[in-house]
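Notebook entry, structure prediction.
Reason for the run: the old model in the group folder had no record of what sequence produced it. Starting over properly, with the input documented here first.
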Amino acid sequence: LDRDWAPIGGLSGSPLDGGPAPGDLMYVIYTSGSTGRPKGVMIEHVNTIVLLSEFQKISKSMDGVEGLALCPYSFDVSIWEFFINLCYGNTLHILEDNYALAPKALFNYILEKRIYQAYLPPTILNDIADILCEKDWPLELRRLLVGVMPIENRIIQRFYDKIPNIDIINGYGPTEATVCATFFPFQKNTFSNHNVPIGKPLSNTWVYILDGRGRLCPVGVPGELHIGGAGLSRGYLNLPD
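New structure, fully documented this time:
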């Protein structure tokens, strides 16, 4: 900005030419390679906007708060961490990876920096809950995203017991569906001996449970989850088939 200030200052407030359109490519992120060959998933701007706007709609929203980025940028949840803060006027705290292995240090950071919203990996949720239950901590934490793998309901209930006005959202979805295809807003312990449900599809997203022939399964019958709609990625990089 300093180097280019002269031409920037002479723009006289006119709109910039071009800029990204909703269907333009935003990023490419590689899957874990469960088939033996990692594939680059192409995500468009509109896909990410669906994720962010839906999260804003179903949980407490405040501008100018403190948010946390704990995940490495090669993990798709980092997209939520970055832009749920940067797109809504919040301060983003980018932490080193070792905080994910040090629950006490992470908890102290959340406490001292008055972190309002964060994603906490399932591997440390119980450890953070243990610290939280030690005493009445004056936490500012009010928006919590969890997910990626099954989470026991009792663990999330511990957070809710200590911070009754917190919004805890369990998100589910593959990388190909832009981080999350479904959200479940946790409210109270109604599934005590089960995992937290994955919830319902985001707006303009469709989720079907189908059998091996592509037919809808009746309620209670196992099948495969099929996802479609505005959160679905463009496809795989250089793999149109």
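Summary: Residues 45-58 form the longest helix (14 residues).
The old model has been moved to the deprecated folder.
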